[in-house]
TrEMBL record:
UniProt key word DNA-binding: yes
One Pfam entry name: Fe_dep_repress
MF term (GO), any: DNA binding
Assembly information from the UniProt record: Homodimer.
Subcellular location: Cytoplasm
Annotated protein name in UniProt: Transcriptional regulator MntR
Length: 217
């Protein structure tokens, strides 16, 4: 049975919100989706019938393995689409999210499998986030926020936690792209803004920005 657009949006929210124990609260879903609590409750009861979550009143939801797989497959469609738009249609990474939001609801598995093949089976999307495979499996990454690094460290920009157009444009303006080596020159004690060096050029990043940049050592 095909999932509806609304169900897929809920599944994607579960993917982003679920904790390491497989739990998420109704309140978290309500805030994330900007949907009233009674509507979320009703949808989660339907998800429980489909065996995607374990639902008990006044308790956090437990996302089942089936639920995690269904959620990952929605995210797979979104991230593959973003990669296709960047690699094959020459969109900037800051311009693909909204288009992918629309195309991710296409139901044809063959369509996305072909997209995957044309792209030569990419493991990551344009923002550095892993693309789930056809079975919903996802690569675990050992990344940390740039804000948690120390002066003198050199790290590699690996991903972002926010694919907002304005933030990605902010990074573009500073020539800060994925896989760029970043040396941390100074961290201001007052506001935690950070002076970094990229290709012998210095830039200053706000604390808000360094919180949203993920790096690997």
């Amino acid at each position: 049975m095909k999932t509806t657009l609304t169900e897929e949006n809920y599944l994607k929210a579960l993917f982003h919100l679920v904790d390491n124990e497989g739990k998420v609260t109704i309140n978290e879903l309500s805030k994330f989706l900007n949907v009233k609590m009674p509507s979320v409750n009703n949808m989660m009861k339907k998800f429980a019938e489909k065996k995607w979550v374990i639902y008990e009143t006044y308790k956090p939801l437990i996302v089942t393995e089936n639920g995690k797989r269904e959620a990952a497959l929605v995210v797979r469609k979104h991230r593959l689409t973003e990669m296709f738009l960047v690699k094959k249609m020459n969109f900037g990474w800051e311009n693909v999210h909204e288009i992918a939001e629309q195309l991710e609801h296409v139901h044809s598995q063959l369509f996305f499998d072909k997209m995957d093949e044309i792209l030569d089976y990419p493991k990551f999307d344009p923002h550095g986030e892993p693309i789930p495979d056809k079975d919903g499996n996802i690569i675990a990454q050992d990344l940390q926020k740039l804000s948690g690094c120390e002066e003198g460290e050199t790290v590699v920009f690996a991903s972002v936690t926010l694919s907002d157009d304005a933030f990605l444009t902010y990074l573009n303006d500073r020539k800060l792209l994925l896989n760029t080596k970043v040396k941390i020159i100074k961290i201001e004690s007052f506001d935690k803004s950070m002076t970094i060096e990229i290709d012998d050029k210095k830039e200053i990043l706000s604390k808000k920005a360094t919180e949203k940049i993920l790096v690997k050592k």
